[in-house]
């Protein structure tokens, strides 16, 4: 069978079985195993590829960032951050809608996954918003959109996976995600202000009240400082920063803020142990899928199409890749998408001399957008389930918010100097700068 | 579930020990091997546990929108696919495990097979849990994905 037909068969089997209800990881493996039997490749080597996909030290950061989010949520420490968000922005037009966005920005600095963000927001602010008369479809759309910032503002699990599989600096991706994250956040606030419901505006908090709320939220807000401080100072790898943050929560935050929670700790550790295996087995399966795709020369063909259409223009290449990933992100989860398509991304990044961190940030922003687009907008699916509204209604309510994401994606593509400003100044090596051999500072390409 | 907790606790402790011993200027190199062992086994055992609890990532279950015999047929088919993949993980994972005796992990010189064993082990557990689901589902109906 020709390579093209095998690639088509593998993709068809994955999507067909996946949409039939087979778990994503098993649907991926099934597709790969069937196609491998038509090639000279031995089936045991697919098992090796699965293993190699997760035998990567950097991926250890995934369970730690999940654990940080899980512990903070379970220990109910997030209530203090909601109080701070309300004190800062609760008086603005939009009321709780603005609080959702600001809280998401804070929480994104602690948790690396949208799922945790959606769960926390839906449970804590969802009922209050319903009571204040917000349309449930709008609530689900806003919570899902705001939760995507968890993948942009560091720490981000998507950035860890992208960095680990694409051999790109994870610290650089973390810092590069800050500006697009803020663009999405500010965009959502502008949208809520001008186009969202007026909501119930609280009275403006006094400086004393804001100070009190800041004091209350200070303990959890140290976590982003630990994570980014450790990475930027070169003292910790992202994995180690994750574990230090876990240790800080266990030995400082929880004893100070919610001592009673310690009894439930063993259960939550076991639960997180289960939760981290779900994305990682998908990474293992997607690695085997991506490897087979590369064996069948799929990436070379697709990157050939893209370069023949876009030439060597980096902006055109990124726009075409964004188009591809918007379609891909509509149908499959972000993590397998990153791994399956990594060979194509690497090919195009090298061919057009795009900075790998810039390309990574563009792809991550696009895939974060995929979390709210149908049919597989996992954040929107979760939010509509938690809020108790039909997915279709939440989807219609989210359509106008797409403009915010399109703006963020275009901004990320066309203003690399702004997106890369933070990594260039705080972690110069991550974007290809090197120490000036004849003087102080760095020389950047 | 308990084993998942043991795995995550295990590699959390070993990474902390790794940082501490490095700060003290006496790094224990073997800690990284222990960390990866906990991590890899945690992933594969967690996969089996997630299969039992229907906690995996799903695209969209067409079966969820159905009722009666058609629903039963879809649910049985989905689990047979998982069972077939589990069977492949057992057999080809076992062959891969045997192959793993030819490579060694550094610095302990333990055969890589000690890690490869996690794949057939996962296959066995997934197969058992899937058979359990098939039997229970046939008798009492299938649970929705978590």
Helix content percent band of chain A: over 70%
The total count of helices of chain B amounts to 5
Strand content of chain A: under 5%
Q: Shape of chain A, please?
A: globular
Which regions of chain A contain 5 or more consecutive residues with pLDDT less than 50?
A: none
Main beta-sheet annotation of chain A: 2 strands, antiparallel
Please state the structural category of chain B. Answer: mainly alpha
Structural class of chain A: mainly alpha
- Determine the number of helices of chain A (DSSP H or I, runs of at least 4 residues): 24
* Percent of sequence in beta strands of chain B: under 5%
Radius of gyration of chain B: 19 Å
Question: How far apart are the termini of chain B?
Answer: 15 Å
| Rg for CA atoms of chain A | 22 Å
Largest interface: A-B, 59 and 59 residues
This entry's quaternary arrangement is: heterodimer
Q: Could you estimate the helical fraction of the residues of chain B in percent?
A: over 70%
Low-confidence stretches of chain B: none
The average pLDDT of chain A is 88
Annotate the secondary structure layout.
The complex is a heterodimer of chains A (445) and B (146).
Chain A lengths: L2 H18 L3 H13 L6 H12 L6 H14 L3 H12 L6 H13 L5 H11 L1 H6 L4 H12 L9 H10 L3 H7 L1 H17 L12 H26 L5 H20 L7 H31 L2 H13 L3 H18 L2 H18 L4 H15 L7 H10 L3 H8 L3 H13 L1 H4 L1 H6 L7 E2 L6 E2 L2
Antiparallel strand pairs in A: 1-2
Helix pairs in contact in A: 1-2, 2-15, 3-15, 4-14, 4-15, 5-6, 5-13, 6-9, 6-12, 7-9, 7-20, 9-20, 9-21, 10-18, 12-22, 13-14, 15-18, 16-17, 16-18, 17-18, 17-19, 17-22, 18-19, 19-22
Chain B lengths: L1 H22 L6 H23 L15 H32 L4 E2 L4 E2 L1 H4 L1 H23 L6
Antiparallel strand pairs in B: 1-2
Helix pairs in contact in B: 1-2, 2-5, 3-5
């Amino acid at each position: 069978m020709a390579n093209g037909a095998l690639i088509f068969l593998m993709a068809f089997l994955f999507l067909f079985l996946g949409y039939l209800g087979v778990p994503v990881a098993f649907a991926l493996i099934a597709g790969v195993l069937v196609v491998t039997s038509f090639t000279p490749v031995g089936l045991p080597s697919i098992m090796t590829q699965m293993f190699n996909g997760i035998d990567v030290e950097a991926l250890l950061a995934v369970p730690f960032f999940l654990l940080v989010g899980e512990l903070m949520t379970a220990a109910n420490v997030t209530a203090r951050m909601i109080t701070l968000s309300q004190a800062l922005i609760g008086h603005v037009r939009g009321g709780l809608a603005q609080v959702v966005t600001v809280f998401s920005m804070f929480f994104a600095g602690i948790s690396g996954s949208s799922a945790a963000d959606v769960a926390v927001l839906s449970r804590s602010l969802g009922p209050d918003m319903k009571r204040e008369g917000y349309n449930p479809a709008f609530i689900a759309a806003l919570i899902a959109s705001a939760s995507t910032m968890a993948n942009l503002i560091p720490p981000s699990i998507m950035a860890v996976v992208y960095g680990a599989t694409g051999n790109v600096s994870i610290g650089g991706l973390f810092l590069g995600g800050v500006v697009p994250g803020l663009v999405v956040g500010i965009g959502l606030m502008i949208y809520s202000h001008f186009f969202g419901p007026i909501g119930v505006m609280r009275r403006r908090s006094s400086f004393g009240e804001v100070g009190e709320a800041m004091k209350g939220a200070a303990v959890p807000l140290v976590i982003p400082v630990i994570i980014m401080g450790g990475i930027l100072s070169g003292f910790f790898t992202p994995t180690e920063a994750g574990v230090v943050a876990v240790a800080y929560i266990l030995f400082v935050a929880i004893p100070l803020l919610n001592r009673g929670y310690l009894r439930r700790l063993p259960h939550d550790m076991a639960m997180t142990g289960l939760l981290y295996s779900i994305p990682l087995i998908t990474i293992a399966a997607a690695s085997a899928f991506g490897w087979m795709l590369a064996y069948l020369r799929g990436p070379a063909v697709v990157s050939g199409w893209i370069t023949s259409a876009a030439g060597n223009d980096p902006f055109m290449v990124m726009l075409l890749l964004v188009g591809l990933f918007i379609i891909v992100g509509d149908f499959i989860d972000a993590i397998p998408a990153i791994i399956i398509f990594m060979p194509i991304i690497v090919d195009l990044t090298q061919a057009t001399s795009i900075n790998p961190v810039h390309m990574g940030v563009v792809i991550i922003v696009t895939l974060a957008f995929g979390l709210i687009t149908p049919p597989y907008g996992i954040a929107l699916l979760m939010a509509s389930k938690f809020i108790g509204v039909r997915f279709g209604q939440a989807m219609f309510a989210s359509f106008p918010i797409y403009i915010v994401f399109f703006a963020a994606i275009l901004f990320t593509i066309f203003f690399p100097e702004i997106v890369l400003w933070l990594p260039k100044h705080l972690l110069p090596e991550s974007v290809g700068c090197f120490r000036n051999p004849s003087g102080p500072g760095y020389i950047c390409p | 579930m308990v084993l998942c907790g043991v795995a995550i606790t295990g590699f959390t402790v070993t990474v902390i020990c790794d940082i501490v011993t490095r700060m003290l200027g006496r790094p224990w190199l073997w800690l990284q091997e222990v960390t990866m062992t906990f991590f890899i086994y945690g992933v594969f055992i967690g996969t089996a546990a997630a299969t039992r609890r229907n906690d995996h990532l799903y695209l969209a279950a067409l079966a969820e929108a159905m009722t009666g015999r058609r629903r039963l047929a879809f649910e049985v088919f989905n689990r047979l696919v998982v069972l077939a993949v589990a069977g492949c993980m057992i057999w080809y994972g076992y062959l891969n495990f045997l192959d793993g005796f030819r490579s060694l992990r550094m610095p302990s010189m333990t055969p890589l097979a000690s890690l490869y064993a996690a794949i057939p082990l996962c296959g066995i557990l997934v197969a058992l849990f899937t058979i359990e689901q098939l039997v229970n589902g046939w008798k009492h109906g299938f649970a929705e994905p978590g």
